[in-house]
């Protein structure tokens, strides 16, 4: 548990930002940011998607050069020409986009000690084998149970949660003075996040100044000593404990945004939409049979590795590897061998790894929006009329996508705004079955409510909505029925209002 710390008795600032500005062409993103980080304190940085959090972090980690303002380290002005310069001064950052930081073609161990190689502290000719002892030490310090086989494998083999842990471990290879984490938990399950929190708190106690970006208030409450809110390129609020989150959310999103989440009026679907029979999500898993109904939201919850993504991909025609099961959609045989077959039948999937699956660099928001429906096969799935641009403009307004308009390239959007585009894309037309894999990941509180509301509206209109997640709070915001998945087995199937959080969590860790 965090013990609140009093700023007045805290030591001198380690990092100070004064009037930091940053523009991209005519787009001024940071409009004069002042921020102070002190040793042994965790500062949480809050802000809506597109507020400028990642841009600020890039400016203070040497990725971007600020257009104006000063950065002071231990009281002295510094120029952070590049990320290496920042690293050398003890400012370590784990950026939001993990795929930029992972070096493909190298092993896990090489990726771990990559910066030492780049800084010349470890010879670049060092054999992967000679890096192992060092990599082992780093992994052990973070309590990662990574064996040598794991350390030797190509990073390409890793899932996103492991990539995230790898980058964290990399940031801790040398003792940082300042540690900056840009949404580190958005790809982690609860247990992995807890492990990360332990590490963060330990580092804090050792005197590291930490800047932590997150959209999860519970997590901020657990960790932070201070919170600051960035809105439209300016700090609009700063608080010490005890935090007033309602006020923080208001300064983040504006008046009226802090309204409580409405009590869900639960739906009960009558009709079976999708029947899955005798499916093994993993070769060694037992056969699973389940009927998913239209007119309600089913939440499938499980830890990472439970088989949620595999289940979703199977339904969406992306994997036939397990191949044992049969399905019926609306009472008729359904055996998609490709996502286009699924889309043609009105079965949509918002994937977990959205950036990697389905965003083409350089494409406009409008094009990205229509992408899955461009094939002749899938075109029938668009029931709504209206041009690509009109539909995109509507979604931009509904979901609050911060952009210059439907023509803007998706690359220039902030992480959360990219997520909104990818989720909104599959909500533009009423589906038979809508699978949402971790739909709240990376989106701000405003968008989270909008996504939940839309999903529930679609269910009320007769769609079968299935949300896959690993967080009980998220599940409660959206689901009518809960299915708990453990290693490809359903360990609990209940109306959500009949089970407690404890019962759900317990069945998530039930062993066979
Ligand atoms: N390289 C770039 N070129 C042009 N515009 C950019 C660039 N990087 C960021 N922006 C713009 O800066 C604004 C802020 O983006 P940023 O990524 O800092 O937001 P964020 O607060 O981190 O949001 P999120 O919560 O979604 O991660 C966005 O409107 C984005 O379009
Ligand atoms: Mg960001």
UniProtKB/TrEMBL annotation:
Keywords: ATP-binding, Nucleotide-binding, Repeat, Transport. The keyword Amino-acid biosynthesis does not apply. SMART domains: AAA. InterPro entries: AAA+_ATPase, ABC_carbohydrate_import_ATPase, ABC_transporter-like_ATP-bd, ABC_transporter-like_CS, P-loop_NTPase. One of its GO terms (molecular function) is ATP hydrolysis activity. Residues 15-257, 267-512 form the ABC transporter domain. This is Ribose ABC transport system, ATP-binding protein RbsA (TC 3.A.1.2.1). The lineage of its organism: Bacteria, Bacillati, Actinomycetota, Actinomycetes, Micrococcales.
């Amino acid at each position: 548990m965090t013990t609140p710390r009093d700023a007045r008795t805290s030591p001198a600032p380690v990092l100070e930002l004064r009037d930091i500005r940053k523009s991209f062409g005519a787009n001024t993103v940071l409009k004069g940011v002042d921020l102070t980080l002190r040793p042994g304190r965790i500062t949480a940085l809050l802000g809506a998607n597109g507020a400028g959090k990642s841009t600020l972090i890039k400016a203070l980690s040497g990725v971007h050069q600020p257009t104006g303002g000063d950065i002071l380290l231990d009281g002295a002005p510094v120029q952070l020409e590049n990320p290496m310069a920042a690293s050398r001064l003890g400012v370590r950052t784990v950026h939001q986009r993990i795929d930029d930081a992972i070096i493909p073609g190298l092993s896990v161990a090489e990726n771990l000690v990559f910066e030492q190689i780049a800084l010349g502290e470890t010879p670049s000719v060092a054999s992967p084998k000679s890096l192992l002892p060092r990599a082992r030490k780093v992994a052990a310090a973070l309590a990662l149970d990574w064996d040598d086989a794991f350390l030797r494998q190509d990073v390409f083999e890793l899932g996103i949660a492991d990539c995230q842990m790898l980058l964290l471990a990399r940031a801790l290879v040398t003792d940082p003075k300042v540690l900056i984490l840009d949404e580190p938990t958005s790809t982690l399950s609860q247990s992995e996040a807890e492990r990360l929190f332990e590490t963060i708190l330990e580092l804090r106690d050792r005197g590291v100044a930490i800047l932590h970006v997150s959209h999860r208030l519970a997590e901020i409450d657990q960790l932070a000593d201070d919170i600051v809110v960035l809105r439209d390129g300016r700090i609009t609020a700063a608080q010490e404990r005890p935090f007033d989150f309602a006020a923080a959310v208001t300064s983040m999103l504006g008046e009226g945004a802090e309204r409580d989440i409405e009590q869900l009026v639960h739906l009960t679907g009558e009709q079976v939409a999708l029947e899955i029979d005798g499916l093994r999500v993993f070769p060694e898993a037992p056969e699973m049979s389940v009927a998913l109904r239209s007119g309600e939201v089913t939440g499938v919850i499980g830890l990472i590795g439970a088989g949620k993504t595999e289940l979703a991909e199977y339904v969406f025609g992306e994997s036939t590897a397990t191949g044992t099961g049969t399905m019926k959609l609306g009472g008729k045989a359904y055996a998609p061998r490709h996502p286009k077959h699924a889309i043609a039948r009105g079965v949509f999937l918002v994937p977990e790894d959205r950036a990697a699956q389905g965003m083409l660099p350089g494409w406009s928001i409008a094009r990205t929006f229509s992408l899955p429906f461009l094939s002749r096969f899938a075109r029938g799935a668009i029931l709504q009329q209206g041009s690509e641009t009109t539909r995109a403009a509507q979604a931009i307004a509904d979901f609050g996508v911060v952009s210059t308009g439907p023509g803007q390239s998706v690359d220039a959007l902030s992480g959360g705004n990219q997520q909104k585009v990818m989720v909104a894309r599959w909500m533009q037309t009423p589906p038979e079955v809508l699978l949402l894999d971790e739909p709240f990941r990376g989106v701000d509180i405003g968008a989270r409510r909008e996504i939940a509301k839309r999903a529930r509206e679609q269910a009320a209109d007769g769609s079968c909505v299935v949300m896959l997640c690993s967080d009980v709070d998220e599940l409660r915001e959206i689901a009518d029925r809960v299915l708990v998945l453990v290693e490809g087995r359903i360990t609990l199937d209940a109306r959500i209002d009949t089970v407690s959080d404890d019962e759900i969590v317990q069945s998530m860790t039930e062993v066979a």
